[in-house]
Write a structure and sequence with these properties.
2 domains, single chain, alpha+beta, 183 residues, Ubiquitin-like (UB roll)
């Protein structure tokens, strides 16, 4: 009987040891899975960091390009303003009043756009509206220019858009080439 109790005790101890080993193996598997997931996340984060760095370099290049374009446009605007002041000093007040005013319908310009001019009239409004105002805008075709103006000046409000045509001489020479003003 004592040997049987001793054998049961040994079997029980072996059972406890096997259970402990099973728990250790299970914990090791869980730890290995966790370590594998951490490595995958680490690799993914490194990839995202590389993409972010590349995007930052690209954005820095775009910003620099836009700053150069802004500087060029500012210089052009200053030069035009100086030329306008010189011309204004050479003209009489009556000549200045007779100068046509050209309004900017849209400053949006993308590559391939052409400078268009159009006349917009509205007989129901005062001032210079019955005879019309001259507008400048950029579009790919005269139809696109017409549609763009119709958004701003709808027929339902008695606006009449006429004479949509490519500008014979662009007002903004630096903007008339295929540079991308809009960005």
């Amino acid at each position: 009987m004592a040997s049987m109790l001793g054998a049961i005790n040994v079997v029980f101890q072996l059972f406890v040891i096997l259970m402990g080993l099973s728990m250790i193996v299970s914990g090791a598997r869980t730890l290995h899975e966790s370590w594998r997931r951490v490595k995958l996340l680490e690799a993914e984060m490194e990839m995202r960091l590389k993409y972010a760095e590349a995007a930052e370099i690209e954005l820095d290049g775009r910003i620099q390009s836009w700053q150069e374009e802004q500087k060029s446009l500012t210089t052009t605007a200053v030069n035009l303003d100086e030329r306008f002041k010189q011309m204004e000093h050479q003209m009489s007040p009556a000549e200045i009043r007779r100068l046509p005013t050209v309004y900017l319908a849209s400053e949006r310009k993308t590559q391939g756009d052409i400078e268009f001019r159009a006349r917009v009239r509205n007989a129901s409004l005062g001032d210079d509206w019955p005879s019309g105002r001259e507008y400048v805008l950029w579009a790919r075709t005269a139809d696109h220019a017409q549609r763009s103006l119709m958004v701003h000046f709808p027929e339902s409000r008695q606006y009449v858009i006429s004479n949509v045509r490519p500008a014979p001489e662009p007002l903004w020479a630096s903007a008339s080439n295929d540079t991308d003003i809009q960005g």
